[in-house]
Amino acid sequence: MQTREQNAAQSSIEISISAQHLRVFQGKRQLASFVVSTSRFGVGSREGSNKTPLGDFEVGEKIGDGMQLMTVFKGRQPVGIHDCQQASEGDLVMTRILWLHGCEEHNANTRRRYIYIHGTNHEQDLGQPASFGCIRMGNKDVVSLFGMVDVGGKVRIVE
């Protein structure tokens, strides 16, 4: 069990849909901020909607520790390294994965919807809604974020 001091020191994440921005806090102090891309389909928690859910979450799992930048994951398993010189239309999950678990009744299905914070092969689209529900980040940025938060860390996604 964590003490009050440990909880206060744990980093948390806030993601703004309207700003397409992710900020990391330790207590009330902002540690970092990053441009992101949320769903092109808007917000929501319905299964199969490809929308980004709102509300309170926690980092349920962290995947990819120590993996090379631009590692491509399928089914949360590394399958190779993305070659930036080759065009790729697909929505690749890359570099690191923070798998979100919903903490509220309306977003409790987030884990089984496979909603992640992850690196992307579409860094040019950051700053605008373009994903299929996940929160996309720049690959170097997601490595930084990965080192700042722990499993169980709080995440809030707001409009």
- How are helices and strands ordered from N to C? HEEEEEEEEEHE
Helix content: 10-25%
Strand content: 35-45%
The helix count comes to: 2
Low-confidence segments, given as residue ranges, are 1-8
Q: Which structural class do you get from the secondary structure elements?
A: mainly beta
- Report the principal-axis shape: globular
Radius of gyration in whole Å, from Cα?
15 Å
Distance between the termini: 32 Å
Q: Tell me the strand order in the biggest sheet.
A: 1-2-3-9-8-7-4-10
Largest sheet: 8 strands, mixed, barrel
Q: Count the strands?
A: 10
Mean pLDDT: 92
What does this structure look like?
This protein has 159 residues and is mainly beta. It is built from 2 helices and 10 strands. It has helices at 4-9, 139-148, and strands at residues 11-16, 21-26, 29-37, 55-63, 71-74, 77-81, 93-102, 116-119, 135-137, 154-158. It has an 8-stranded mixed β-barrel. β1 and β2 form a beta hairpin.
